[in-house]
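---------- Forwarded message ----------

FYI, see the Sulfatase record below. Original note from H. follows.
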Amino acid sequence: MKDSRPNVLLIHGHDLGRYLGCYDVDIDTPRIDALADEGALFDRHFATAPQCSPSRGSLMTGRFPHVNGLMGLAHGNWELHDDERILPQYLSDAGYETHLFGLQHITQDTDRLEYDHVHSEGNLYPGVSPSVHQANRARNVASVVASFFEKSAYAAPFFASIGFFECHRVEEKNGRFGFDADYYQGDEPESVRPLPYLPDRRGIRQDLAEMHGMVYAVDDAVGTILDALAATGIDEETLVIFTTEHGIAFPRAKGTCYDAGIETALVIRYPGVVDAGRRYDDLVSNIDVLPTVLDLVNVDDSAAIDGRSVAALIADDAGEYDKRDQIFAEMTWHDVYNPIRAIRTDRYKYIRNFWHLPTVYLPTDIFASESGREVREADGVPSRQYEELYDLRDAPQEDDNVVYEPRYQDVRRDLSRQLYGWMDETEDPLLDGPVVPGDYGEILSWPHDNS
């Protein structure tokens, strides 16, 4: 490990999952791929939740959503508990100057985050309107970051959180949700590779082709930022992390605890410390990012963190690596109440559903999309089974629920015990019954007629 503390850039995309060339997707993302070649890439990095705010809350606190309190969307009256600490606060206490660029979406009160400098407007609510969130588009965020470096508007060491709007869907004039094809240059539907967990249908191909334009925008923005960083001459002393918060905005992905919903990218570059060009297939959760950063910058202040550092896996002289046997994921509130808890091991995925909902939940932006229209009849009708078990060796797309097959009963019982043990250990409020929404007090205050 280096003696001096590095600067830290945390770059994060929206609704992007692992839809990148370096994750063997048929799309050109040369700048992110190059970053991966210069650092460590994690093939099995998963989010704690398949939705924005809860997953981002875990990234920034190192704690599960039901532990830190952010169990729904930040603009939906959900907030971190008052005593929760987030990454910029840990680093600020260690002497870092902290900066926020673009999207954050873990609170509507930016002051709560205690950044020293907030450089972009409109970073509270990702929304769906293409006209409202220009400041959060990747090109614009990258331009602000590049100007920041060009003007040497920082004091070392510094931490910068850099968030992009892409690849969130936007509401179009026809009421459908797409990828703003008038703004981004995508690809032709015939040229895209279909998603392995969805049928190969016209509407899904059209959506994918349009989304490519947003992915290209993210890749270009990452390149702009890295070029600006290199021009300062401080890239060798800067820890760069690129990650995403959950799977892409397609059916059976975003809003579900299937792998496609919780899969996330994670690339870590730190010249001279992190071995370059390595790929790791260890199970890693996004609650592990915060303790990893603290380890790599030599800050020891993580007693209350649920995550485990992977610094010892990717860097020399970083202590003993505590390998995971499983990761946990959850969902509680999105645009409806949708309580799910899940456990994933190397071979199996066990999902416990706690509410009566359709076979596959489709968030509003996906339900009202071309892709959603293609699968509504099959997936958007009641009812789902309360338990799901998938043998990922035989059914990697999680399309064969074997929870009631006799030969899997020992696995079912074991994973169920582990899942409920985790819920009990972390004092999951779901064990006490349905979890009320963040604005429940306001709902109770609504006027009503007793006549």
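H. also flagged this: Residues 123-129 have pLDDT under 50 and may be disordered.
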